[in-house]
Amino acid sequence: DTAVSQTPKYLVTQMGNDKSIKCEQNLGHDTMYWYKQDSKKFLKIMFSYNNKELIINETVPNRFSPKSPDKAHLNLHINSLELGDSAVYFCASSPRDFPSSYNSPLHFGNGTRLTVT
Amino acid sequence: AQKVTQAQTEISVVEKEDVTLDCVYETRDTTYYLFWYKQPPSGELVFLIRRNSFDEQNEISGRYSWNFQKSTSSFNFTITASQVVDSAVYFCALSEEPGGSYIPTFGRGTSLIVHP
Predict the structure, then answer these.
(1) Is B43 within 8 Å of chain A by CB?
(2) What mean pLDDT value characterizes chain B?
């Protein structure tokens, strides 16, 4: 009964390719996120999305795009992959009353390690 | 803009030592929320605690305790009698509302290594 699941866990691909990472949450949450964790472990927000609003970190290249077919899914598409895209990508979700509700932390998936060669 | 600073990049201790991980934050909002997450070597991010800005009561959970001080904008995390299983990267994070961004901003993390 995984709460936030990402696939694949590992992704190895060559420069210039297009790839997608899938994320699904079964918590009934309203908002989903993508974070990028670089080699120095820095966690940086890329996107936040609910059914009303997409918030994009302005530093994210437009080669990255989130796609949400429904409230439970937020996939990450990456075009023309570059070496610098190698990182661990985390999907997360939060309920409507985040962060004000005591019992509503951000729930993370287990991450997708992307390696671009 | 919100900001979280974890000045300690790496801490190395011997088992049974107490260790404190520092977290200093910056925000213009009067209502905000602070979090700690643990990332063990297996890589997942595990939620540890959430604290809101109007609750300065310190919290203890087993060997873990958190000291929230608004006067110094700090939310420090102490592990008492550390164990090898505590070895992980620990992240402090901040969310703001209603005027700021609810999207959590993370510090750069502190890598804790506990030697047997």
Answers:
(1) yes
(2) 92
